[in-house]
Amino acid sequence: MKIYYQGKEVGLSHNVKKVYDIFGDNIRISPKNVIACKCNNEIKSLDYELSEGDTVELIDVTDKDGMKVYIRGTLFIMSMAIEKLYPKAKLVINYQLSNSMFCEIQNQEIDDEFIENVKNEMQKIVDSDYPIEKRIMNKEEAEKFFTKQKDDRGILQIENKDKDEVSLYFCNDYYNYFYGVMPLSTSYINIFDVNKYKDGFIVRYPNRKDPTRLGEFKDNKKFAATLQEYVEINKLLEINTVKELNDAIREGRGKDIILTSEALQEKKIAELADKITKHKELKMVLIAGPSSSSKTTFAKRLGMQLSVNGLKPVTIGTDNYFVERKDTPRDEKGEYDFEAIEALDLKLFNDHLTKLINGETIQYPAFDFKAGTKQFFEDRTLHLADDEILIIEGIHSLNDRLTATIPHENKFKIYISDLTVLNIDYYNRISTTDTRLVRRIVRDYNYRGYSAENTIKMWESVNAGENKNIFPFQEEADAMFNSSLVYELAVLGKYAKPLLREIDQSKKEYSEAKRILSFLEYFNELDDTPIPNISLLREFIGGSVFDY
What we know:
By secondary structure, this protein is an alpha+beta fold. It contains 15 helices and 23 strands. A 5-stranded mixed β-sheet has the order 2-1-5-3-4, with helices on both faces. The longest helix has 25 residues. The model has no long low-confidence stretch (mean pLDDT 93).
């Protein structure tokens, strides 16, 4: 049998077919912790059985897919430890916080003894090197199994019309469902920690950049508070998981969920506008957030609410304040880095802002991107009246360097993101990044002429820019706004799934497309007719009253 590894043909004995058996030495001596593989552009476990002509790539923890496997394995071991020590505990894996996952126990107080017990039990499980085995059942077998166990871990798979089989992971006498590939055994999870945090605890793991030690935990209090606020909102809606959302849609409550979610969001925007209006010294609102957070629609909606309060919004964009092309910084590849804050003419921008808030008139530039230079026209002027307020949206809006000469009391910073807190079930969360990617896939196809393949191809670069220019400054915000809507993936799925299915398995982006497609298939589709034409979601699916 022949396979392909690192671009070379490898001949194998017919008796050896599993990835680990073939590449065991490479895996064991890897300093970067090989934890899974990619076979024909699809993420697989290291015990995957290869076939003639397969192309194999080993995945370590420095790879984003490898880190997902590591995190999944860590949470599996944590869940296993808690069930052994506290069999009646109702565990909820909530959301990710700075190289860690925040978890809660619904029916038990978390104290130092609990933390120490769980940590010690996890270490015992890791040291024992127990195999983690994936078992597959047909749906009839699975229904009998769940009935016998009187447990619903993984039961959502039965309702998934796109799945013919049900898979569960077993380790000794423990089982659970975790969405995605697992490590071969518990010993792969050799670096972790458990710490008490608020009313729950965090499970910590390494950072991709250095898998040999724990990633730094930064207590981003505003960010965590915003996430927790929406966890509580979902509890009020009685929709914490995809199953509960699906049940509501099946029962005909979809329209009510849409309208209630939209009303809650409108209330939040109005509260922000009221807060801004109360501060009479404010002259500008700065808005920043990662890709597909719906910044544009949010800025328009906020402007409407400010107008109701007697403030007229005036928008000024940073795109017209780029430095001359010859002065543009370059990245490590020697290419122009237009996302760097140094690519902006900060001196001119601050000079203009200062003049505007002092009541002066400015002649603001129009940047000619083809020529790489700013142009000024006599009729292109701007003056800020007493009842007007500047709205500035851009990736650097939370960075004080952008508005360094403007007094703090004159500006109000808002961080916006689609902070998903809906879980597949109580053990499997939906990544905020994944939800934004689904939004972008739909928007890029509808309005920018990009395929899902192109969007996925660009996504890692987009994330790198966010990690550099946006996320480090999120705690500098005066307010955070969560643009997530609890129902959105039930709507976005019907737009995104056909686009994802177009990606051929020969493409590198196939593995990511299949992963996203797999979790979208858990959602019952929801009719988008009741969604208001001012909804943030309309920015992606169409039908918005706003011009973009």
